[in-house]
Amino acid sequence: MSDLSSLPQGLDALETRLKQDLAWLELPAKSWIPPREADGKRVVDVVIIGGGMAGLVASGMLKRLGVANHVVLDKASAGQEGPWVTFARMRTLRSPKQLTGPAMGLPALTFRAYYEARYGNEAWVVLDRAPREIWMDYLIWYRRVLELPVCNGISVDAILPREDGMLDLVCRQRDRTEIMIARHVVLATGRDGLGGPYLPPIADDIDRNFWAHTADEIDFAALRGKRVGVVGAGASAMDNAATALEAGAARLDMFVRRKELPRINKFTGIGSQGVVHGFAGLPDEWKWRFLNYAMGQQTPPPRPSVLRVSAFPQARLHLESPISELKQIGDHLIVATPKGRYPVDFLIFGTGFKIDLTNRPELAAVAPYIRLWRDRFPTPAGMPNAELEGSPDLGDAFEFLETEPGACPALAKIHCFNFPATLSHGKLTGDIPAISEGADRLARGIVKALFVIDRERHFADLQAFDTPELLGDEWVDAETTTEKDTKLNA
């Protein structure tokens, strides 16, 4: 990761341009929310949990709309937020380089503007896709130039409803715990934000030293000279397989259930502003139909990732090879499939993530009241889908809804701005293409809720406002003037 303490001249000029753009647009808007206190401490209007891309753009949108009293909390150290320099192991992003991502409609805030400022226009022309480390550098820069209120090294252990309608957040930093009081909470917690990594049951009885999930920290250097197996062939599976091979794995076997790798990225193929803004307006059955079909077709791994693996002669792809049995024998595993039995020293599961509220202890107090799609929408005939059935049923501002009205009103103050929001709102929360549009929808919904709940105070401010625009000396009453002229002419 680059040292941004000594910025190239191009970035200095770009930042000057950005400041001018913001000034011309009168951004950020002035702070307008009346301050509140409770239990002797100031209440935070919005707490965003997660300082990755989604958390940063949510913060940027709230700031531009005048919600100054908000904070972003992330358990990682500064510069380590999100997956980009932790468990993401691809060389470049999957998304095309020209996508504007979290730029919020500001040209000087785009990745392209940042990249050209650092490396020049010619470098942009020859660039294929953004290297993930440089993308992380961009997000660090984004956070700095927008002066976003991110606090690192803080985890949220519990979100607890209060009797006054607000929320207590039990925050831990090292060995110190304190309570933060918030009016709204945004969960910008990524793909596993409402659950965790998915592992098939075959891993239940296997010693943890013999396997990892692609979201785990993995000592790839320790795999040098080893036989490595990878379950799955999605993007993460391919990138982990390539990393193991590049670290010197003696043999690598990829086990894939499908007859062939998916080749067409269906949802990306129909990407448009219609999908971005129109998906949330679809009837429920059509939302289900779109996503169930796209998920059934699956997303192909990026071509560069596949070529990165297939370049190694010791890599083998096993199609139509679901794992039927997994045994631990001495110092290695035996992977059994319909096509054969394979000894491996280490197995990596590229099996994605699952929604499981019981995996999120911070949500334990509210999880039983969160309405899921299966709680109100009958699964369409012929389209069973466990992931969709377990997706949260969200309101217009990504807020959780109650299973029973009145059971937990505080859910209206907790906003699910992470990947599981997809069925309710479309792909606005977990990927680069429409993250700004998602953050705009989120921020406007929160602003609306804050204004409505404070309406009495805003009305009192309206009544009390007494700064005159006219001073009384601009004009003279016509009748007074006429009487005066009549006396003078008499």
From TrEMBL:
InterPro entries: Auxin_biosynth/cation_transpt, FAD/NAD-bd_sf. SUPFAM superfamilies: FAD/NAD(P)-binding domain. Keywords: Oxidoreductase. One of its GO terms (molecular function) is flavin adenine dinucleotide binding. The keyword Oxidoreductase applies. The keyword Oxidoreductase applies. This is FAD-dependent oxidoreductase. It comes from Rhizobium sullae (Rhizobium hedysari).
